[in-house]
UniProtKB/TrEMBL annotation:
GO terms for cellular component: plasma membrane. Zn(2+) 1 binds at residues 369, 373, 397. This is Angiotensin-converting enzyme. The keyword Isomerase does not apply. Glycans are attached at residues 148, 337. CDD domains: M2_ACE. Its EC number is 3.4.-.-. Keywords: Carboxypeptidase, Disulfide bond, Glycoprotein, Hydrolase, Metal-binding, Metalloprotease, Protease, Signal, Zinc. Disulfide bonds join 526-538. It is an enzyme of class 3 (hydrolase). The active site is at 370 (proton acceptor 2), 370 (proton acceptor 1), 501 (proton donor 2), 501 (proton donor 1). It holds the Pfam family Peptidase_M2.
Length: 650
């Protein structure tokens, strides 16, 4: 996970709200049209911005590594100062008529000019801060009892339970109680949150661009008008493969939980090894038959790492060497002096990773991912501060995952001396097992990642009313994921709030994009000098030409629009799922054999959200939940009853 930099859009909006309200009316001044003067202004403001980022990052780092009242107070104060700076820059841009400037300079002004949620009045600002803080507090403090064990927190207690338990009732109890303790407690607060967020959006304007809803602010950094359509189009192309995985999983679950599976061919959300059914790889250990080769060891080098006495530092050194062999820079001295998400401190040499490291394969992959972020920071460090971030919100996560695609291959692990490959191994079976695990982590994640923000887009826009928020959540989960709630839900529940990114206001579509982009990058780099190797077997380790191309793209940061950078590397301006589908081609062939005889319609589900909802809305005012047509019928029936009673006693 990226630290400060990748979440800058969120920090700008939330941090800004922590400050004292600053009057946003700009004093009458002559408008500056001279681009040379504007360039000098941009140089000065970027230097100040880097200084402000550095100061705030230091305080944020202190708080994240040592949470106490003192560091919290310091962070709040730093937030106020940072907010004042951000607002001032947005106001100062009004001095310049920058519409005719070069694209490089104009885009800097566009980024500086957005105020975000800080545009709210002082009263609304305090309300927005309070409701945001309250929702996050509800989520972070939620604890439940399961199987007579109490004070269970989400991480690590409940995540471990959902990943390892084979008990249907225990999984159900944890699933329901977590939602009761988290999302259900914040329903009304969330309505207030997005109402204020939408109000803030309408107060923003950059040139002729107007903002209507909170997600308009979130998506501003994509600089792509049809980004929602691109995401929808990508998911549509991926769904046929997803349905194969869904059917494969459903058939295994029907054998394990006979009589407890819905007849509509959906999968109950609590049976997939994850609290949100967003990744299903844990079922390979808990559900018989999911692992097609249970007697074949999973590609896991944890035991070998411990045998070779790996330390956290050795794991980081191994990761550093991977990048050096690609032609990237070695880590700075300050990096090694700060062992402890990846962070950019907006200097030329201060980059850090905050991680509690276990000596296992999972953390070895995670380290390569986080080092990918650090290398990205290092490549664009010469850019002005306003451009020191990923080309779009998905690029940073994609780079980290791109590296992991090579590192996790048997070929690479063998090269590092952590995996011995001999002729007795059935490499085809091992590859299928590895690909299935990858698909249950990456491919099944895609519909969920899309739904989290699709739901918010629909709610923020008013397409879905506040009275139908939870119903729409399950409508989308049923439609795209084929997932159903294991017990009936109502509008008293607020199941989206049981996912961290919803109450914390973190845009989620970036993860959807990152999963597509990583395979596009992987294919482009592999085709440079390893076109003869299957995509799933490609390891770019040591490929200097591939490293050169990757470094070139990363060095621009956000100074070029992401479609342009994507085209320079891959040949296309749009996100494309074809490389992902190509990567998993062996697994698709395996699934086709497993599902032989199944027609296309057999792979689909017949989900009706009404079957999973309580008609009474579980105590909500039923008139409040009626549609206009239903309400008119209600009045008509009431009038008929009144006439009948009147005639009876006439």
């Amino acid at each position: 996970m990226v630290g400060f930099t990748m979440n800058i859009a969120i920090y700008v909006s939330v941090i800004a709200l922590l400050s004292t309200r600053i009057e946003c009316k700009h004093k009458d001044k002559s408008i500056i049209t001279d681009e040379n003067k504007a360039v000098k202004y941009l140089k000065d403001v970027n230097e100040r911005m880097a200084q402000e980022y550095e100061k705030y990052s230091e305080v944020q780092w202190d708080y994240m590594t040592d949470m106490n009242n003192h560091t919290l107070e310091a962070q709040t104060k730093a937030s106020e100062l940072f907010s004042e700076f951000q607002k001032k820059q947005a106001i100062d841009t009004k001095q310049y008529n920058w519409t005719h400037f070069s694209e490089y300079n104009r885009r800097q002004f566009e980024r500086l000019a957005l105020i975000g949620t800080a545009a709210l009045s002082e009263k609304d600002t305090k309300m927005f801060i309070n409701v945001s803080t309250e929702m996050e507090a509800i989520y972070s403090s939620a604890k439940i009892c399961v199987s007579n064990k109490c004070d269970l927190e989400l991480d690590p207690d409940l995540e471990k339970l959902m990943a390892e338990s084979k008990d249907y009732d225990q999984l159900l109890e944890a699933w329901v109680k977590w939602r009761d303790a988290s999302g259900k407690q914040m329903r009304e607060k969330y309505i207030k949150y997005y109402t204020l967020g939408n109000k803030a959006a309408k107060l923003n304007k950059v040139l002729d661009k107007e903002f209507k809803t909170l997600d308009d602010i979130w998506l501003y950094g994509w600089e792509t008008e049809d980004i929602k359509k691109q995401m929808s189009k990508a998911l549509d192309k991926l769904l046929p493969f997803y349905r194969k995985l869904h059917t494969y999983m459903r058939l295994k679950l029907e054998k394990t939980f006979a009589g407890k599976m819905p007849k509509d061919r959906t999968i109950p959300a609590h049976l997939l090894g994850n609290m949100w059914a967003q990744q299903w790889a844990n079922t390979m250990k808990t559900v018989p038959g999911v692992d097609p080769f249970p007697n074949l060891a999973q590609i896991d080098v944890t035991d070998e790492m411990k045998k070779q006495k790996y330390t956290a530092e050795k794991m980081f050194k191994l990761s550093e060497q991977f990048f050096v062999d690609l032609g990237f820079d070695a880590m700075t001295d300050k990096f090694w002096n700060n062992h402890a998400s990846a962070w950019d401190f907006y200097t030329s040499d201060d980059f850090r990773i905050k991680q509690c490291t276990d000596i296992d394969m999972e953390d070895l992959i995670t380290i390569h991912h986080e080092m990918g972020h650090i290398e990205y920071y290092m490549q664009y460090r010469e850019q002005p501060a306003v451009y020191r971030e990923g080309a779009n919100p998905g690029f940073h996560e994609a780079i980290g995952d791109l590296i992991a695609l090579s590192v996790a291959t048997p070929k690479h692990l063998n090269k590092t001396g952590l995996l011995t490959i001999d002729n007795s191994m059935n490499m085809n079976d091992m590859n299928i097992k590895f690909q299935l695990k990858m698909a249950l982590e990456k491919v099944v994640f895609m519909p969920f990642a899309y739904i989290v923000d699709k739901w918010r887009w629909d709610v923020f826009s008013g397409k879905v009313s506040a009275n139908h928020m939870n119903e729409h959540w399950w409508h989308l989960r049923g439609k795209y994921q084929g997932i159903s709630p294991p017990v009936k839900r109502s509008e008293r529940d607020f199941d989206p709030g049981a996912k961290y990114h919803v109450p914390s206001g973190v845009e989620y579509i970036r993860y959807f994009a990152a999963h597509i982009l990583q395979f596009q990058f992987h294919k482009a780099l592999c085709s440079i000098s390893q076109s003869h190797v299957s995509l799933h077997e490609c390891d770019i380790d040591g490929d200097k030409e591939a490293g050169k191309r990757l470094k070139h793209m990363l060095s621009f940061g956000a100074s070029k629009k992401w479609p342009q950078l994507l085209k320079e590397l891959t040949g296309t301006e749009e996100m494309d799922v074809k490389p992902m589908l190509e990567y998993f081609q062996p697994l698709q062939q395996f699934l086709d054999n497993e599902l032989k005889g199944y027609q296309e319609n057999d792979l689909k589900w017949d989900f009706d959200v009404n079957h999973y909802f309580k008609s009474s809305a579980n105590g909500f005012n039923s008139i409040q939940l009626l549609s206009a047509k239903q309400f008119l019928q209600f009045l008509k029936n009431g009038m008929s009853l009144f006439v009948a009673i009147n005639e009876l006693f006439a």
